[in-house]
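Entry 12.
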Amino acid sequence: MTYLIPQAADQALACDRLPLASYREIAAHLNLVPGVSVQLLPQTSQEFDYLQSQVGGLGLTIDPVMGDRSRDRVEQILAHYADRFGPWRSLPV
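Predicted 3D structure (tokens):
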């Protein structure tokens, strides 16, 4: 499955049941990929749900000329966590 939008420089993704520690871990992994910068987005829900993540999602800034190898690595990282916590969904940027 492809999670990144081709040719888009700024993207946002969320996984509803992903814990805070896992979001931080993903951000650390993705920040190691050349051409990728990641920020944790704040939670915007006004209602508390114990099962909902404390993070609103990941904000990704991707170099438009990032190579295929780096893009494939980002996809692998996102797929790894999707297999464990559920699908990623795109957020408005």
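Annotation: The first helix runs from residue 20 to 31. The beta strands are 10-14, 36-42, 55-62, 89-90.
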